[in-house]
Amino acid sequence: MTDLPAGFRSYVTNLGIKDETDDFVVIACDAAVPTAAVFTQSRFAGPSVTLSRRHIANGMAQAVVVISKNANVATGQPGIDDAGTVTHIVAERVGCDPTDVVLTSTGVIGRRYPIDRVTAGLGSIPQPLPGTDADGPARAMMTTDTVPKLATASIPSTSGEARIIGMAKGVGMIEPDMATHISMLFTDAAINSADLDAIFRRVVDRTFNCVSIDTDTSTSDSSIVMASGAAGAVDLAAFETALFDVAVDLTKQIARDGEGANSLIEVVVDGAVDTAQAKRVAKAVVNSPLVKTAVHGGDPNWGRVAMAIGKCSEQPEDRRINQDAVVIRFGSDEVYPRQLDDAALAELSSYMSGDHVVIHVSLGIGAGSATVWGCDLSDTYVRFNADYTT
Question: What is the pTM of this model?
Answer without folding.
Answer: 0.88
